[in-house]
Amino acid sequence: MAEDLFSSTEELKNQPLAYRMSPRNLDEYVGQEHIVGRGRLLRRVIQADRLSSLIFAGPPGTGKTSLARVIARSTKSAFTTLNAVLTGVKELRVVLQEAQQRRDLYDKRSILFVDEVHRWNKAQQDALLPWVENGTVILIGATTENPFFEVNPALVSRSRIFQLTPLGPEDMKRIALQALRDPARGYGLYRVEFEEGALEHLIKVADGDARSLLNALELAVETTPENFPPAEGEPISISLDAAEQSIQRKAVLYDKEGDYHFDIISAYIKSLRGSDPDAALYWLARMVHAGEDPHFIFRRLLISASEDIGMADPRALGVVEAAASAFDRVGMPEGRYHLAQATLYLATAAKSNSALGFFDALAQVEQEHTAEVPRHLKDANRDAKGFGHGEGYLYPHAYRNHWVNQQYLPESLRGKIFYRPSKQGYEKDIAEDVQRRREAQLAAGMEDEAPEVLSYSPPDKDGERWLARTLDERGKKLARIRDALFSMIRIPRHARVCVVGADEGSLLWEALRRVPEGGVSALVERQERLEYLTHYADQLPEEEQPEFFSGTPLAYLKASPREEASFELLLARDYHGREPDKSEMLATLYRLLREGGQLAMAQAIPRYSRRLSQLIDQEQLRIGDEDFLRALKSAEEELYQARSHPLLSWDEESLKADAEKAGFQVQECRMMALQERRRIQASDIRRWLDPDRKNGIGAFLQSHLSPAEVNTLSDELSRQLDGKIVPWSSRVCLLTAKK
């Protein structure tokens, strides 16, 4: 039934002190300045009697019901209160019908205060909803739970939510003094005195709960004299012992199913994540003191060990698992040692949330069509013969360091990064290895096959060539060239570096590592490569990312504020062979450097690479094919002797001379021999022998063989070499020069 918030004077004397001391107006209301302080919205609407539906949420004893009583005393509307625990739908309907009659007959508003509103079930809350919607009643709800979780969302959306917080020590003292000084409702008729520390003890233990404070105060005052009430003016001395007995133990606010349960476990986990062992132990003590299930705590610790510590300290998961197992064997109360040890280990461990990369991968899977498993990763036990499943897979354990440069992601996700090692703990030690392997895969996948003696043509984008790159040892070769080139130069950590022709990225990432306080610019000539590199660089912290420019060195100079640059170091790989006018190209690079700057180049010399005729097994030749082989060798000789050939008409001496002609002082020029394995495919052979490809071997074969004979030679080469992995030798010139 509805409960009247007002009581007669005689009835008031028989009520508990906490009830008697309920504030009668906003001036007597103590605390919650953030919602009822001078000029605040709630204070204004209460004073103006312009209330809309409200929900007060907060811990017990913070003034929710008291605030409702203040509203009841100040409003001209009919005010009815219900306790959600004691009333059901039947009682609610009676109140709502009365409110409707009041509105229809007297045009008077009705306010319905529902204490513990979260205790109503869905049916009860649904019964109230239409009456709130049509304005028959204004709802004021009070709850100790989170209204967004426990109250009908439709009611929440039609109400203003005000959160009340535990009262501070000063507010609690004001409330206690009000009760001690009020002669009508409190103990103002008596001379109540407190031993030093007694009142402070009550305030401390009540911990922001005014109701608990007033209940303890009432108990202390009324049980200290032999007979209560004593004569007016008679002293009542409250000792510290009496105060302690009145409120012997603080009732820790902790409902295992309630909002504060989740707030405290949230504070605990955030303290672990924030590496604050003191706070973590405090929140752990709060939970243990309140009787929290230790298995629930260990469950959250196990989650945190992987979510917040993860690969920064892989041992963390084992430590927590061992502590949980030991707890099961030992039990309480000694099991608290295991809770504390696991807590301290996680709080003090290095932190990394790199495991969240899984959820990035999961999001990728959910938003895309399922990508095809690369052929070399498919199960070779099924369909290997018919579809080539598993063909080309390189077994990592057969290689040095148990790793081989091989693509494992689907083609559509090449270069995608999900795992980002932190710079903490164990991950700090492995981060560089992870990064280098990625860069090797990235560079091998992006590198155009160097135009060797067999042909000279624009890069072929045929998808089959991607497969060849993943199956060879291109990444190892690039890493050897990179390391050899960087060993020849000394770079200050603050240097400005420019990577010319950075399309494949092998020099770019190492340059970034070498100049952490400097800067790296990357000149990328192909838009698709720029997008690829930019995507990879986006995974790095913004301050560590290179500056990208789309275009040639000459275009970069023209785009600069002055047609001059001031780099301390220029890096380039296989850039010399791309340009027809090599002297002009080097002169442009010269302009990019500041005085005293250095050029470091790694340049493959195509004329030293392996010839196609050297790949043929003469013992496997069919009768009559010897003539084709002789024709191929003759064409190769002509090709290598052609002085105008853009790739074969120069060597390391020519490169050195071109650099000196551009103004460089050559410091060192050394040759590096390389061996790698390459997979030859029929499509490669057809492309090499194509007579329409300018400067290719096929063009020179025309003077020795007819088109039909060229086709026969192509068929024979395909028969011997298609799908075969062959040793491939090449030589690289490493050159350093100074401006």
Report the top-level CATH class of the domain at 9-163: Alpha Beta
Oligomeric category: single chain
Structural class: alpha/beta
Query: Cα-atom Rg, whole angstroms?
Result: 41 Å
Mean pLDDT: 78
Quick one: biggest sheet? 7 strands, mixed
Low-confidence stretches: 1-6, 249-259, 384-388, 446-472
CATH topological fold name of the domain at 9-163: Rossmann fold
CATH hierarchy: architecture of the domain at 9-163:
3-Layer(aba) Sandwich
Q: Indicate the proportion of strand residues.
A: 5-15%
Query: Helical stretch count?
Result: 32
Summarize the structure.
The protein has 739 residues and is of the alpha/beta class. 46% of the residues lie in helices and 13% in strands. It is elongated.
Report on this structure.
With 739 residues, this protein is of the alpha/beta class. Among the domains are: 9-163, P-loop containing nucleotide triphosphate hydrolases (Rossmann fold); 169-246, Helicase, Ruva Protein, domain 3, CATH 1.10.8.60; 259-351, Up-down Bundle (Zinc Finger, Delta Prime, domain 3), CATH 1.20.272.10. Helix content is 46%, strand content 13%. It is built from 32 helices and 14 strands. Helix 17 runs antiparallel to helix 18 and helix 27 packs across helix 29 (652-661). The model is unreliable at 1-6, 249-259, 384-388 and 446-472 (pLDDT under 50).
